[in-house]
Every structure is written in structure tokens, then in C-alpha cells.
Write the C-alpha cells for this entry.
Amino acid sequence: MAVTSPAREPNVPAAPTLPPAGRRRRRSGRTFFGLSIGAGVTILVTLAAVAVFLLIEAWPAVTASTAQLQEISWFDASSLLAYTGPLIFGTLLAAVLALLMAVPVAVGIALFISHYAPRRVAQGLGYLVDLLAAIPSVVYGLWGVLWLQPLLDPFFAWLSSSTFGVLPFFADYSPPARNMMTTSIVLAVMILPIITAVSREVFLQTPRLHEEAALALGATRWEMVRMAVLPFGRSGVISAAMLGLGRALGETMAVLMILSPGYLYSLYLLKPGQQQTIAANIAAKFPEASGLAVNTLVATGLALFAITFAVNMLARWIVARRKEFSGAN
Amino acid sequence: MGAAALGAMSLVLAACGGSGDGGGDSTSGGTSDLSGSIAGAGATSQEAAMAGWIAGFTEANPGVSVSYDAVGSGGGREQFIAGAVAFAGSDAALDADEVSGATERCGSDVLELPIYISPIAVVYNLPDIDAEHVQLSAETIANIFNGTITNWNDAAIAAENPGVTFPDLAVVPVHRSDESGTTKNFTDYLAQASDGAWTDEASGDWPIQGGQSGQGTQGLIDVVAGAEGAIGYADASRAGDLGTVALQVGDAYVPVSAEAAATAVDASPAAEGASDTQITIAIDRTTTEAGAYPLVLISYEIACQTYTDSAEAANVKAFLTYVASNDGQQRAADPTVAGSAPLSATLQGEVQAAIDTISAS
């Protein structure tokens, strides 16, 4: 280029430099295109590899006869399904209870941050919530065992001996508070930050015009939130809740530390030794498992994978269905 | 007599320990010309003791590196039979199939050495009780753990503890939530000694649905410590501040101790199929021997009688000799290591005789 430029007209110096730059730009564009395709494919391949691994490893347990399965020392169910059933029940019970407790509180906090708190307080509070999301679950487990359990003990004892104690949910409490209720409370605290953070972002997206219109019609702040913010944010809150549900379903360490496990379809929330979750069960049994026992545990893991998948699909379907009715359009 | 023997043993041991340490410090590597590495795998119950043994053995034999992977008894036996490890630790003796598998692997007889004896304490959380040890028979303990006895002021408990007033407090039985040799020995004790009050068989997994439980020994101890009125079972060395039950043996009540555990093992007959090299013991849970504490766990070391590699044979032999020696047994007995019960002199003699048969083929 340097050699040819003197021969060229001095008033068109930019012309020769354009093609190489364009080529370079095109090349970098192609590289980026390749990279992003690669990243996308990696995700799919990883997902497929996990699914295939689960299927292959679970297969011996799925095809094994009941007699073979019952040779595993801890396997006392009549079939693989009968063994996995109570675990699925326990997993869903813990996660749903946690969600029931966490969502109202999370929406409240998110609304406070987005629409009620003074700006400076809101910012600090936002950081704080994000920080909570970063705490590892084993720390939540320790917190639950060492701090929350003794605190809940007298309350549970009172609840169980009061007239509420006739309901199975609150009957037969036995200390320490290593039961489903404590577990789901800790899970609720764990999923609170993620639900709050996502909901807050969604509420902040509410079109200013909608809010001002509501206020102009004479709505109080609460009425404005109810008329403009909540309908707009509904699908966002649902996806936030599903994110939380996903974390609650797979939570292992905290459950392992807090819950006295049992393998029953039981709604006794204060009685110890009634339910167990899939993830905690795998963590508890895996260290000493070998052979078919490992396959059986992987089969329960496959069930968890399927549940998580189903929950995500359900969430997407709900969000997609609600989108057209939300205030976004 | 037993006490005298023990005293003598500990004297010898103190001497050994002193000279051993001195030798290790002054002439590093000069105490043995063994070299190489040996791998073991197996029971988690032995893990703490094994760490102590490995440390003690490497002090005297810096050329040998010993590893122990606590994968669980079943996994250890599997790996041993498959030839992946030179020795295995197991809370249970080999069954007939495993013996033939192991014999095939070794090309010779297999050694089963009862080398780790650990008393299991029945621990309780009753801070206000006015007694050093609550006294209970196996039958009462079985009724507590099967849910028949639900309150500490039960007449059956009071009858065994004259002069002690028990509070009106719910009994909270706590078991291990994971599979465990401790659970297996505890349920074996209940099944054999409770006069039919315990209807389940011995099992490493807790046989009864529901109830309070803890993950691992420490988990169980934490749960018992966390609730007044709780009762559980754990390695005696881990009982900490919790009270421990004195078990009814004959007409007397015997509190948990290393000596009482060793006495119970000595009073127990050899298991079916035992030989000079397979020193398996069927613990007599119903013993009436004075001063015996029959709630013990025996963990075995499993090794080959011949190894094709002469260095490996020498290393395994030297390591097991150290483990069975007074030095090794006292090291594991240290409460900061494993708090196990040292082997009695008779059993130690039998074990050493078996170890002496190890050779290269």
C-alpha cells in the first residue's frame, strides 16, 4: 500500500484503505459469528451430554428386577418408582412451601425498592439483596442449624401443643426442629434474593406513562401499584418465582444439614423423619454407594432433571401466555 | 490381673514411644530400609485411627508411603478383591463369596485381622439428671428406640435407676440417617440382647421409618446435643459432654470404657469359619462376663497372605505389625486420634502370629 500510494491521486487517499479494513471487519465478524455459534452449540451439547449420561447411568437401575434392587442395603421399596415417588414428593413439597413463603415477601421488598423507598435507601437495599444471593448454600445450612433451629423450637412446640396441633401440618413436633417446616423456611430465605432482584428489575420497567396516568386519575400510590405496576410485572414475577423454584428444587447442602430424612408421603411438617429431597438423598447416600446403588441414585437424579425441565417449560408457557395480557403492550 | 497386665503394657509402650520418637528425630530414614508405597481402602470407622497409624508408621519408615481411602466397608472389600488395593478395612468379615474371591486374588489364604475395636456409647442429653450414668438394659433401650417408651419418667427406666428422679420429658430417640457400621452393631446388640423387644434384624441402615436423625457421627451428636431428652448412639470417643448409658450385663451395669470393650471382645467366641489367619469374632452381645461392655464395633484389616511383589509383602507386613503393636494400638486409643480400645494381649498375640505368615510368593 505504501508503495502504490504515491502513484495515486492525492485527493482520494481514503479509497485504497477501505477494502482491507472492510475485509478485516468482515473477518472479525465471521470470527465472532463462529464463536457465538460455538458457544450456543456447547450449551446444547453439554445439556445433551448430561441427559445421555443420566440415561446411561440410570438404565441398569431402571431395568433391574426388584430383587436385585433390594440387595442394596438401603433399598426397601417394592420398585424403583416406589422408591423415587416419596423423594419426588418431598422435593416438591419443600420447594413449593418455600415458594409460598418467599414470593409474597420478595414482591413486597421489590415494590418497596422500586416504588416506595427514597432513592438512596433503595440503592443500598438493592445491593444488599444482590449480596444475599451470593451467599453459598452451606452457609445458609449452618445458619439454619445453629441459629434458626433453636429459635423456632419453642414456637413449634407451642404450635404443636395448641389447638392447631390437630392438623397434620402442625402435629407431633419433636425437638430439635429438624423438620420440613424449618427446611422450607431456610429454602425460602435462600430463594428470596433472586426473586426480589428479578421482580425489582421488572417493576422498574413499568412505563412511566402508565404510572402517571394512574396517578392523574386520582389513584393513591397503592392503587397505582395495583393498576399499573403489578399487571405489567406479573409475567416477570412468575419467571422470577420459577427461577427461585429451580434453585429450591436442586438445593442440597442446606437440606442435608437441616432435615431429619424419612421416605413417606407425609404432610406432617413439624414431625421429624418424614420427607427427604432427591438432591439431599443423593448427597447422603453417594459416598458409600457402589454398583447398582449408584445407578439407583442416578435414576433419582434423572427424575430431578425431568422435574426441573418440566418446571422451566411450565414457566415459559405461563410467561408466554400472559405476555399478551400484561400492560407491556 | 487384667489391670496389672494393662499397666505393664502401657509402661512398655511409653518406653517404645519415647525411643521411637527419638530415633525418628535423630536419624531420619535410618530406622528402616523399607521403601515403596501401599494403598488401602475401606471402612470410614477406621479413618481417624488409620490417619494416626499412617503418621506413626511413616515416622519410623520414611521410605514407605501408605494411603487409605475411606470409601466404606463394602467398597473397600470390592477394591481388595479386584486387586486395586493391597489391604482393605472392613466393619464386617468377608462372606463366603468374598472369601473365595479374595483367595483367588491373593493366590493364597486371606488374612482377616480384628485390629480396630471401638466401644459404642449410648449417649443422652439430660443436663439435670443426678447420676453419673443412667443405667439401662438392652430391653429398655430397645423400647426407647422402637417408640414404646416415650417419656423419661417411664416406670421401666425408673426401676433400673433406684434413687434417681427423672424429669417429665419426652424421649427423643436419634439415629444415623446414613448407612453405618455403628448402626449395624447397635441394632445387632438390640436384636440379640433385648429379649425380643427389638424385632428387626441387624442392619447398617436404621430399620424404622420416621424419627429424628443425624448425618454422620458428628451430625448425630449435634442433634442429641440440640434437644433435651434426646438419646442416640455413637463412637464412645465422640460422646463429648453428653451422658453415657451404663449397660446391664448380667446383674451389674457396666459404663462404656476401652477396657470393658476389650473384655467383651475377649469373652466372645470365634465366628463360624474362623481360622488362624481369618480371626473373625462373633461378638457375644448377651455376655454376662463381669466388666464386659458388649456394645462394640470390630473393624477388620483384610490382607493377603502372599503378595507377588516382595517389597509390597514386606511393606504390608511391617505396616500391619505396627498397627497391631502396642505402639500402634495406643496411638489409636488416644482420644485425640480415635479413642479406640487397644487389643488384649491374647488377641494381639493371635493377630501378630497371623501377620507373621505374610510373605512374597
About this structure: The two ends of chain B are 42 Å apart (CA to CA). Chain B touches chain A at residues 44, 71-72, 74-75, 78, 170, 172, 177-179, 203-205, 209-215, 219, 222-223, 226-230 (CB under 8 Å).
